[in-house]
Amino acid sequence: MHRLKQLTPYERRSEQMLPRPQFVRRLATHFLAASLLMAGSLGIGVAGYHTAEGLSWLDALLNASMILGGMGPVSELRTVAGKLFASFYSLFSGVVFLVTASILIAPVAHRLLHWLHLEALEE
């Protein structure tokens, strides 16, 4: 049981709620993880557009940012490689969006559910 506690980053039902400073630290850690995921994904997009479509670094950044943000490409894609990359990168970006949202929502949802559970135990 002690080994299981080391593997789970969240407090269990029977434990007290995490104090506010530690919760803020948890939020910051999740925000850092989400930011690294987004930065890595943006890097993949920039490199892909630069390589597959031959766009300048700035145009590749613009296209990758727009697709990662869910808006769609800005530049017209002319090569087969560029169109294929854009298709796969769009699908990849959708998954990254969901994972990033999950990373950011998880600590808040856990705290809310933990608080509700503790409140129910007190009654």
What share of residues are in beta strands? under 5%
Query: What's the count of strands?
Result: 0
Biggest sheet descriptor: none
> How would you describe the shape?
elongated
Distance between the termini: 28 Å
| Content-based structural category | mainly alpha
Please tally the helical runs, counting DSSP H or I stretches of 4 or more residues. 4
CATH topology: Helix Hairpins
For the record, the CATH class is Mainly Alpha
Q: What would your notes on this structure say?
A:
The protein has 123 residues and is mostly helical. It has one domain (29-122): Orthogonal Bundle (Helix Hairpins). Helix content is 77%, strand content 0%. It has helices at 2-7, 20-53, 57-68, 80-122. Helix 2 packs across helix 3 (57-68) and helix 2 packs antiparallel against helix 4. The mean pLDDT is 88.
Provide key terms for this protein.
123 residues; Helix Hairpins; single chain; mainly alpha
Short characterization:
This protein is 77% helix and 0% strand. With 123 residues, it is an all-alpha fold.
Topology diagram in text:
Elements: H1 2-7, H2 20-53, H3 57-68, H4 80-122
